[in-house]
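Final report, Chapter 2: Outcomes

The project's central promise was a pipeline that accepts a single protein chain and returns its three-dimensional structure in a standardized token representation, suitable for archiving and comparison. That pipeline is now operational. To close this chapter, we reproduce one record exactly as it appears in the project archive, with the input sequence first and the structure output second.
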Amino acid sequence: MQEKLKAMPKENQPHTPVGPDLKWRYFWRIGPRPSNTRFQELNAEPVIPEGFPEWKETMDSWGYKMIAAIEVVAEMAAIGFGLPKDAFTSLMKLGPHLLAPTGSDLQKYGQEGTVFAGYHYDLNFLTIHGRSRFPGLNIWLRNGQKVEVKVPVGCLLIQTGKEIEWLTGGDCIAGMHEVVATKRTIDAINLAKEQSRSLWRVSSTLFAHIASDAVLKPLGHFAESPLASKYPPMCAGEYVEQELAVINLKGKK
């Protein structure tokens, strides 16, 4: 990966992390889970942290709104791809969706070039974010160009993950992205200091998944794609476990 990054034009190169991501994240499951599944670990009961009596209600209220937005976009995408309207949403039912509030302390880590999330793709189906308090998200277009994201007030951002790449036989590829402290981040930090606002960069990210026991494979006409052989049929849970094992996030049996 690092060799590939060095070969990119300078203006499109991501920042290279020098250690773990400088962020804190909490995973909260959204929606029901299957009563019977081969993938118990991916569908575990949620943990409610102590000291937040309103935790479940607040998290579920926002999480279900995010899932509803994803479902509408998934239906629109299916129609646009020439698939049945419910081609994606039917596979999302009982999926291990996770609301992941994510925070970085810019008081402590507010220097330009600080990496909060190293260059990566998401392994799930679609990822949706509310607008963060501070800028810093960079995405890469299909042509390799790096773009700094600006989310208008009142809007949500949706990014493609690896599961939709699988279902479309590589037609819709998982988007690469990173979160770093840019010049715009520093300007926003200075403004927040002047206004005595919090210097925590908080983003409300939700990872929408295909159900663990559903089969990932190119759907409909995508099965005829020349790239389809790169995406063999596999349970979504099996794919997710493989990815988690590679990045050391899978629990030890």
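Archive annotation: The mean pLDDT is 93.
This record, like all others produced under the grant, will remain available to the consortium after the project formally closes.
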